[in-house]
Design a protein that fits this description.
The structure is a single chain. The protein is α+β, with helices and mostly antiparallel strands. The chain has 17 helices and 19 strands. The strands form nine sheets. A three-stranded antiparallel beta sheet has the order 3-6-7. Strands 1-2 form a two-stranded antiparallel sheet. Helix 13 packs antiparallel against helix 17. The longest helix has 22 residues. It is globular, with a radius of gyration of 22 Å. The two termini are 24 Å apart.
Length: 532
């Protein structure tokens, strides 16, 4: 199965030719689509989301593609990540093009995440990271980060909008269109992505500072920005116009109207789980390498105790001296996981659902003016064509977000250790540490494709694929998967980011989460590096 997943990744390479200026000039009837991207001129080999159904690049898809591709072609993985940062792709204002039908739309900023993990995985495997690659990427991402701050925080309060962000119909409102009564939608996912982006840039800056000390100041700026974003999501002593709901123990989008009215949109979805992913772990040995950063971060903690009070700050030491930065605290994490690991909410037999199953019997309904809209749990294809239509984020399991949650929980384990346990599944009476939860989630995703009792979940009720000896071992890697039974849904044969399952197989089969032959301190450091 791992070989088939990686073969599919390689198969989706395509020579992508699109010169926006020539396209618009040659046929004005085609309209003004992408008219703000006249500089974009591609004649490059790119890994497509799906060579049959989606034969074009998508920025955040491509970032996840590289995490799978690095297993078999490290050079190509780095090339793909750098390609869309080239001058003939990246806008002069720093925006990264989203996808062919609207380059100006906004995808989650996951390029920093991909760059850091590619660098770290290569360093762990070979003993030496590609610093030139890291520095080139860091410089371009500085421009993109600045674009996000200037364009997607309209109120200047460190709560980000972002819009569509690749999640199609996950919300009760169309996030790509103006709100029915005006105002601003401050998004839990957009803000979590930016908190994570800050941490990715912080990690890269500290790594570069080992040889070039001037990067230590830049690292501190990203630390400070992260603290501002994280504290804005849940301000100490307040609970009426922020993203975290203390009563529910969950994060929601916040609708802020022009008359000052603010209300959380209480849809239990992936947007409320993503803050878990905004986390960083640094060992004590690494922390001691940066005395200026250490001094300034301590100063910030003393100066603004009310700012850092509702997040996990770097001054709090965990097991083996490890330190952590995270949007959530261990207490908040426990509350969020109680929902995430509940079979009646997010935890399916084959991964974490995109919306809680709670909404099957309890639809979320919102009335704005004369309009009433609702969100139901829909485990397979979308029941309507609204907000993107063919890609449904109202129940199915999506590989990339599951992948991120698995890695994030492992990072949390390297800080909290074996003594921090949660009930998994919720209500089962069985308790696991977070490394064990990571393994359990990985197992559930992998069993989408493996044969259990003679059948593969991915094939659903298609008997020819289940039983025919000529077809039953030809695994299809769909775009997403049924939230209850794991059947493949959406595009196939190969949608690129589902190839991430190869990375999960590699991790679990090689025991990369465990280092029994090393002393505890070294084991934790190595494991933390691998998780990054």
């Amino acid at each position: 199965m791992m070989r088939q997943a990686l073969a599919g990744m390689l198969w989706t390479k395509q020579h992508y030719i699109y010169d926006v200026y020539d396209w618009i000039r040659e046929d004005v009837k085609r309209g003004p689509r992408n008219e703000g991207w006249l500089h974009l001129s591609s004649a490059d080999i790119i890994c497509m989301p799906d060579k049959w159904e989606y034969p074009w690049f998508a920025a955040w898809d491509l970032a996840f593609h590289t995490l799978a591709l690095q297993i078999v072609d490290q050079v190509f993985a780095k090339h793909q990540l750098e390609l869309i940062q080239k001058p003939w792709f990246m806008h002069a204002n720093g925006q990264i093009p989203a996808y062919e039908w609207n380059f100006g739309d906004v995808n989650p900023p996951v390029q920093g995440l991909a760059a850091w993990r590619i660098y770290t995985n290569e360093k762990v495997a070979t003993g030496k990271g590609d610093r030139a690659f890291l520095q080139r990427t860091f410089q371009k991402l500085l421009m993109n980060f600045t674009w996000w701050v200037n364009r997607k925080d309209s109120l200047g309060n460190n709560l980000f909008e972002g819009g569509f962000l690749g999640l199609d119909n996950i919300g009760v409102l169309d996030r790509s269109s103006p709100l029915p009564l005006g105002g601003t939608l401050e998004q839990a996912d957009g803000t979590a992505w930016m908190a994570l982006y800050s941490l990715n840039m912080l990690e890269m800056a500290l790594e570069l500072a080992k040889a070039e000390p001037e990067f230590e100041d830049i690292a501190y700026k990203f630390y400070e920005h992260f603290v501002q974003i994280a504290s804005a999501m849940d301000r100490m002593g307040l609970n009426d116009d922020e993203l975290y709901d203390e009563e529910d123990g969950f994060y929601y989008d916040l609708l802020r109207l022009s008359d000052g009215f603010a209300s959380r949109l209480k849809v239990r979805s992936l947007v409320g789980l993503l803050p878990i992913c905004a986390s960083l772990v640094i060992t004590q040995a690494e922390f001691n390498l940066f005395p200026k950063f250490k001094e300034r971060s301590a100063w910030l903690s003393r100066r603004y105790p009310e700012v850092i009070g509702n997040l996990t700050n770097i001054d709090k030491v965990g097991i083996h001296g490890n330190r952590m930065l995270s949007v959530v605290t261990p207490e908040k994490l426990r509350r969020i996981l109680s929902r995430m690991l509940d079979p009646n909410e997010f935890l399916g037999e084959h991964g974490i659902r995109s919306i809680s199953r709670y909404h099957k019997d309890h639809p979320y309904v919102l009335t704005l003016g004369d309009e009433t809209r609702s969100v139901n749990y829909e485990p397979a294809e979308s029941s309507t064509g609204m907000f993107g239509g063919n890609s449904n984020w109202r129940g199915p399991v999506w590989m990339p977000i599951n992948f991120m949650l698995i890695y994030s929980l492992f990072r949390w384990h390297s800080y909290l250790g074996d003594d921090y346990k949660v009930e998994c599944p919720t209500g089962s009476g069985k308790f696991m540490n977070l490394q064990e939860v990571s393994y359990e989630l990985s197992r559930r995703l992998i069993t989408i494709f493996t044969r259990v009792n003679g059948r593969r979940a991915v094939f659903g009720g298609t008997e020819k694929f289940q039983t025919d000896p000529h077809w039953r071992d030809l695994v299809l890697f769909y775009e997403y998967f049924h939230g209850d039974n794991g059947a493949g849904v959406g595009a196939s044969h190969q949608t690129g980011w589902t190839g991430l399952v190869a990375r999960l197989i590699q991790i679990t089969s090689h025991g990369m989460f465990e280092f029994p032959d090393k002393p505890p301190e070294e084991a934790v450091a190595t494991a933390a590096a691998s998780a990054q």
